[in-house]
Amino acid sequence: MQLTFALFLMIQFTAIAFCEGGFFNRTCKAIKEQHPDAPSNTYSIVTESGKCIQVYCEMGLNGGGYTFLHPTTLSVINDLDIPQMFTDKTAFLLRARRTDGTQPYAVLKQLSEFSFVPLKIGISSFESFGGPVNAGHIGSPYIFFGFLPNSLASVSAIQGLQVNGVRISYTHCGSVTASHFALFPNFKEVDPGNAYYPDPVYAGIFSNVRDNPSGRVMPGDYFMFGEIHFGGCGCYVQTNQMKKDKGVLALTIGFR
Fold first, then answer.
1. Residue among 157, 148, 149, 62 nearest 110 (CA)
2. In 99-232, beta strands by DSSP E
3. What pLDDT score does 3 carry?
């Protein structure tokens, strides 16, 4: 018999042992499908490898069902856990935490000419993609969100992404094949790199983020240090540099 939503919520707030007992869903998307009126909130899910983890589920924006991983989770899951949680490889959901307390969002997609290319998620890995700069500074764990793999990023003249349906493109230059966002918990408080190239993609992203209609915010501890790297000639920026011109302190990205 299908659980009522009230009972489902009661189970969500009981001891974590229930998670190990199999009462919990596997993804935020599954919760949304089974309980269409489920609110955006923190939930517990069971990963493919049997780990019980806490996530934030965004149930409203862009149709809902987006899973946001807590920074502490990145140390206990791996790439084998991702396919269960990441089945819609057409969109990511970005949220930025700003100095004014707001958390604008953006739906990120491939440019239309690359719509056939699935988006990529890696847990401290970036196979077939250009790697994050701060993997060499901050190190693992981190979560990688890739757009174009090396095979395309190295040869395609026009690259970029869509941000809330707006095309943000640039002409690739040089030999750098980066096409990603990466988020780092940075538990050891290591100094990141200091490169800063606020080229067109950076401006395009933050000119097209939107405030969510409700003004509802996520828990602040789901946000992390982030880098955004597109190009040669797209942009390279880090959140520790975004405060001065965009008022951005940290980023988080959801998927479904």
1. 148
2. 105-109, 120-123, 143-146, 158-163, 166-171, 178-184, 225-231
3. 52
Which tens digits make up the pLDDT trace of 29-51? 999 999 999 999 999 999 998 89
Whether 170 contacts 160, CB under 8 Å: yes
Give yes or no for a cis peptide into 141 (omega within 30° of 0): yes
What is the rounded distance in angstroms from the CA atom of residue 143 to the CA atom of residue 57? Answer: 17
Q: DSSP string of 129-151?
A: SPPPGGGTTT-SS-EEEESS-HH
> How many beta carbons lie within 10 A of that of residue 211, not counting itself?
11
**If pLDDT is split at 50, 70 and 90, which confidence band does 25 have?**
confident
What residues form DSSP beta bridges with 178? 231
Per DSSP, what are the bridge partners of residue 183? Answer: 143, 226
Rounded Cα distance between 247 and 96, Å, is 9
Pick the more confident residue, 198 or 10: 198
Lowest mean pLDDT among 12-16, 50-54, 62-66, 215-219: 12-16
pLDDT 10s digits, 182-191: 999 999 999 9
